[in-house]
Design a protein that fits this description.
This protein is 46% helix and 17% strand. It is α/β, with parallel strands linked by helices. Bound molecules: adenosine-5'-diphosphate and magnesium ion (2 copies).
Length: 902
């Protein structure tokens, strides 16, 4: 029975039998050729061998039973329809053999044209074309070239070299100047190249040519480059490729023939119009190969008005049918138009929004579909300013495009100078070898950050991305000398005060000021461009689609913000609260001294005094943030990092002490500091004394923060505002930790809040795997969970985030162990499973438990979809990512068919 089934299995589809929905079976090219055939468009007849045939071939190493017979049958009916036989010496039918998978894939075999030509049929072809010998021999040499290269792996340069030599001998650069005799000679040269590399003569049997080409397409599915590409793009290896066998039509028959490509609208801007290129007297691949200069498609109107009009009609028809921008390939054979390919075309981010908006206007799609057609990555791209590089600007160095955007400004080398100049209204670029947490103020003040060390995950890169600030990292041609306030590059010296420009997308560094265009999309989000009144198709489309996304989404979108300014900005971007307000930066700068006293406290009362001094400062910090987020929830995380991060680095301190001792200075204080730094040194600080552990070990620290939060909220309430604080305890792994902190906090809150009406929630981060696995217990003591997916990823995988990304992630990505860093996009199967378990068990223990996520995943498109699926209440991300998260949260609803998955 199994044998019977294989014999009967259908492996070959005539173009009239397929349609555009069958991409998986027929590949994209085949499915769309079938669709066009069935629309009645002029497609040369042909058939598609299915991806299933490819899978069977790859599994067994031979063509599946029945395939040969089915190809034979389809070939015969093609021959009958065309009234010619494949490779017939008098009047040959010729075909192209074209690969085409569900997803287009570099690394796979592409196309062999003119299959069926040999030493006899080339003469027949010439005769049939009105004794056009030049055309026939040109077609034959193309067959040997493409067949040799793609089917038999003959190095392509050898053929190109021989072609160049032929042109050289003729004293020309134009292949059209080669006559029939030249091309005959070239065919001889090509055959020799073929023989030399394959050890056999170029196959003369048409059917053998066809079978070898089909087999080569199958095998190209497993070519090394294709395998690698699939792993990285997460394309399943078992899909396989289809093979299309298409009757040849000829654009190289003379000046009344030609070939071209076209888009139904401008893929760069989305504007309606005619966009394409045409090349007369040429065959297929010449257009892209750039062998001769193409002309704009509009000029076809003069050359061949009938074909031009027909083409425009077909383009309009295709767009209406696919309800999207299409790109097409066509050929004109002696005034007759043939369609050779179409697909929904690639486009820029701006065009994606504009086209989606236009299609809604035209009534072709609805807003749900428009939302589906754009994505957060495109929106993010549109939110960066960009350089106008039409001038003669040459980069002097190229680093890593660590955080996109374009920034020009005065060079400064210290954080303090950056703040000073920014206060004077200057744009500055902060240049450092690398940055550290003390540079934060300078980074905030700067337009852009340039470092000579570090990669995409260096401090500079990560912080800049979080702030949406342009950053080029690791530009190692640059020699930075901070004390001398200058850097050198390419033999030139750039001093403080000189101007440079950096492109955080390309990593390029320019001397002088390159003009920058601000992002109109950001201007719109900030409220300075009114979409109703601005004549800007992009802004109007973004507005329309964002409004629709907001109406659709179930996830709320909050922001990560540590300052009033960030909070205000995020609010303009649509944030509905703060999901993560870090408090550690509130212990830096001129507060360091207080923190040192707190950590070093020896004498009784010293710690209390430091805490008492910190309290009003903290209260003021929170008041500012609550004011900006008036009426919206603000989740404040109690201090999280290991305290020694607030002390000077060990080596530096040791040197200072030694030097001072040498000079006979009084170093008692420095020695005490040094001893403390030694005492607090940790081998694995990320797994050490941090988060809730600090709160349990350092008396009064969390209490001071809780009091500051509660007092700030009460003060806002007294002023007529509505603060909604949520206190978040970091790094909890056991419910007992949280209970202990909670008991103390509740007492303070009750005392401070009194009858002010202020309500303070207490919850926890879920970022230690044990917390996720005991979420049911922890929920008893938590009013909310916020998933700290950065730490959860770090501890879930056992990856030290600061080390592994630079050390070996490149290898993991190359091997396809993951397609994207799990710190960038959530690992659904592992870390995501922990989130799912915690969400389910937490809600089971405490119905109505509020669930959110903070950390970089909250602004990552794919992760947002996951959090929607798991049923969280909100995501929180950096201000700049808020619009991206809003858009993706809306898309998540549309893509799950509008269902609420909770
Ligand atoms: P790719 O996927 O690289 O575009 P294609 O299979 O589309 O590869 O073919 C490459 C070129 O050959 C295209 O310009 C196409 O239009 C042309 N071509 C393919 N089949 C035929 C055919 N039967 N007749 C004429 N030109 C063809
Ligand atoms: Mg093509
Ligand atoms: Mg954490």
């Amino acid at each position: 029975m199994a044998a019977q089934e294989t014999v009967d299995h259908k492996y070959v589809y005539d173009f009239s039998e397929g349609n555009k929905e069958l991409k998986e079976l027929l590949g994209g090219k085949g499915a769309n050729l079938a669709e066009m055939t069935n629309l009645g468009l002029p497609v040369p007849p042909g058939f598609t061998i299915t991806t299933e045939a490819c899978q069977a071939y790859l599994a067994t190493g031979r063509e599946p039973d029945g395939l040969a017979g089915q190809i034979e049958a389809h070939l015969e009916s093609l021959e009958r329809a065309m009234g010619k036989r494949l490779g017939d010496p008098q009047d040959p039918l010729l075909v192209s053999v074209r690969s085409g998978a569900k997803f287009s894939m570099p690394g796979m075999m592409e196309t062999v044209l003119n299959v069926g030509l040999n030493d006899q049929s080339v003469e027949g072809l010439a005769a049939q074309a009105g004794n056009n010998e030049r055309f026939a021999w040109d077609s034959y040499r193309r067959l040997i070239q493409m067949f040799g290269k793609t089917v038999c792996e003959v190095p392509g340069e050898e053929f190109e070299h021989a072609l160049d030599e032929a042109k050289h001998a003729k004293g020309t650069h134009n292949d059209l100047d080669l006559d029939a005799d030249d091309l005959r000679g070239l065919v001889d040269a090509y055959k020799k190249i073929f023989l030399k590399h394959t050890g056999r003569e170029f196959p003369q049997q048409p059917r053998e040519q066809l079978d070898l080409a089909i087999r080569a397409v199958f095998e190209s599915w497993n070519a090394e480059r294709a395998v690698l590409y699939r792993r990285q793009e997460r394309i399943p290896a078992e899909l396989g490729t289809a093979v299309n066998v298409v009757t040849m039509v000829f654009g190289n028959l003379g000046p009344d023939s030609g070939t071209g490509v076209a888009f139904t609208r401008d893929p760069a801007s989305g504007a309606q119009g005619i966009y394409g290129d045409y090349l007369a007297n040429a065959q297929g691949e010449d257009v892209v190969a750039g062998i001769r200069n193409t002309v704009p498609l509009q000029e076809l109107e003069q050359l061949d008005k009938a074909s031009y009009d027909e083409l425009l009609g077909i383009m309009a028809r295709l767009e209406e049918h696919y309800k999207d921008l299409c790109d097409i390939e066509f050929t004109i054979e002696r005034g007759k138009l043939w369609m050779l390919q179409t697909r929904v075309g690639k486009r820029t981010a701006a065009a994606a929004f504009v086209i989606a908006g236009q299609l809604v206007d035209e009534g072709l799609i609805d807003l749900d579909e428009a939302l589906h057609r754009v994505n957060g990555a495109q929106l993010a791209q549109l939110m960066f300013p960009r350089f106008q590089l039409d001038h003669e600007f040459q980069p002097v160095a190229t680093g890593i495009g660590a955080s996109p955007g374009a920034a020009s400004g005065t060079v400064v080398f210290t954080s303090a100078r950056a703040v000073e100049l920014a206060a004077e209204g200057k744009s500055v670029i902060l240049v450092r070898r690398e940055t550290n947490p003390d540079d934060l103020n300078g980074m905030i003040a700067a337009k852009g950050i340039l470092t000579s060390r570090g990669g995409k995950t260096s401090h500079a890169a990560v912080v800049a991305r979080g702030m949406g600030k342009t950053c080029v990292s690791g530009a190692d041609e640059i020699e930075v000398n901070v004390p001398a306030k200058r850097f050198t590059v390419a033999g030139q010296t750039v001093a403080e005060g000189d101007v440079v420009s950096i492109d955080g997308t390309t990593g390029k560094v320019y001397l002088g000021e390159v003009p920058v265009m601000p992002s109109e999309v950001v201007q719109y989000f900030e409220g300075s461009l009114d979409p109703e009144h601005v004549d800007n198709a992009l802004v109007r489309a973004v507005h329309r689609i964002m409004t629709h996304a907001d109406g659709k989404r179930r996830l709320a979108v909050r922001t990560n913000a540590d300052t009033g300014a960030d909070a205000a900005r995020a609010r303009r971007f649509g944030a509905e609260g703060i999901g993560l307000c870090r408090t550690e930066h509130m212990f830096l700068g001129d507060r360091r001294e207080l923190v040192e006293r707190l950590i070093l406290a020896r004498a009784p009362g010293e710690r209390e005094a430091a805490l008492a001094a910190l309290l009003p400062l903290q209260r003021a910090d929170f008041e500012e943030i609550f004011r900006e987020m008036d009426g919206l929830p603000v989740t404040v995380r109690l201090i999280d990092p290991p305290l020694h991060e607030f002390l000077p680095p060990l080596e530096q301190l040791a040197v200072n002490v030694a030097v001072a001792q040498e000079r006979g200075e009084d170093v008692a204080k420095e020695e005490a500091l040094l001893a403390a730094v030694r005492r607090m040194h940790e081998e694995n600080p990320m797994l050490g004394l941090r988060g809730v552990r600090l709160g349990l070990v350092i008396p009064g620290l969390f209490a001071m923060q809780v009091r500051a939060i509660a007092e700030a909220a009460v003060s806002c309430a007294r002023g007529g505002g509505a603060a909604k604080p949520e206190i978040m305890v970091p790094l909890v792994g056991a419910v007992q930790e949280l209970e202990t902190v909670r008991a103390e906090a509740e007492k303070i809150i009750a005392e401070v809040v009194g009858d002010s009406g202020v309500e303070v929630l207490i919850g926890t981060m879920i970022e230690v795997p044990r917390a996720a696995l005991t979420a049911g217990q922890i929920a008893e003591a938590a009013e909310f969970f916020s998933f700290g997916t950065n730490d959860l990823t770090q501890m879930g995988w056992g990856f030290s985030r600061d080390d592994v990304e630079g050390a070996f992630f490149w290898r993991y990505l190359e091997l396809g162990i993951f397609g994207i860093s799990p710190f960038e996009s959530i690992d659904r199967d592992g870390v995501g499973r922990l989130v799912r378990i915690a969400a389910e068990e937490g809600r089971a223990a405490r119905p109505g438990l509020k669930l959110g996520v903070c950390g970089e995943h909250g602004g990552d498109p794919d992760s947002v979809h996951f959090f929607h699926e798991v049923g969280l209440d909100y995501v929180s991300c950096s201000p700049f990512r808020v619009p991206v998260a809003r858009l993706e949260a809306g898309r998540a609803v549309v893509e799950t068919g509008g269902s609420d998955s909770r």
